[in-house]
Amino acid sequence: MPRSAPCVLLTGFEPFGGDSINPAMDVVRELAGERIAGHRIEPATLPVTFDGAHAALVAAIERVSPALVVCVGQAGGRARISLERVALNLVDARIADNAGAQPIDVPVITGAPDAYFTTLPVKAMLQAMTAAGVPAELSLTAGTYVCNAAFFALRHTLQTRWPSVRGGFIHIPWLPEQAARVPDAPCLALETMSKGIGIGIEAALQHREDISAVGGTVC
Q: Domain spans of the chain?
């Protein structure tokens, strides 16, 4: 596909927490270079560090000038692809990042708003994924680790520098080989997760505004 064609920036993370793999990085590799709804998928890998993830994300946006940014991260223990709705301006690291930093109860960006909502049409994406048989859900928490920090940094950066560019975050479960180490842990195959992310991206490109559909929770 010509380099001048519009593109989607798709980011994943390097392994962390002592693991040797990260399904987010694998999904990005699977979809890299694909063409979805007339847009080329441009890949980028982010470091699992609070200081480095934001800088790498901004550099990737500047490099490819995307129409859409979708960040993907691992959420071990979840059973479905989670479409994140809210990014918090809060870091409370349960474990150290890959640089050894473990900040507690500090903002992602000092002086920025308390939170941002995604600008991805997550209900339309959810509808498309589930219609294709991909396990998916809406999520109201991206945690307080590097995934949430990258999500918040993405939204703040787009809001303040590139307001016409939409972006958001998706969490994916462990791969089967990761879940095998934890009794009864849920997982999804790489093929299923890659299919779901691709379908979600297509729905996001087709829906500038989200659909009106029930997606809330009682508690």
A: 7-206
